[in-house]
Design brief:
- The chain is an all-alpha fold and about 30 residues long.
- About 90% of the residues lie in helices and about 0% in strands.
- It contains one helix and no strands.
- The chain has one helix at about 5-29.
Length: about 30
């Protein structure tokens, strides 16, 4: 697989995990 694609998937996965964390923190506050 292309390293650029892997890098993009890592960035998207990291961003989505942060987004979910931010939303869960906001929901519980």
């Amino acid at each position: 697989m292309d390293s650029h694609i892997l890098g993009t998937l890592r960035v998207l996965g990291f961003g989505s995990s942060i987004y979910t964390f931010e939303n869960s923190q906001h929901f519980h506050s």
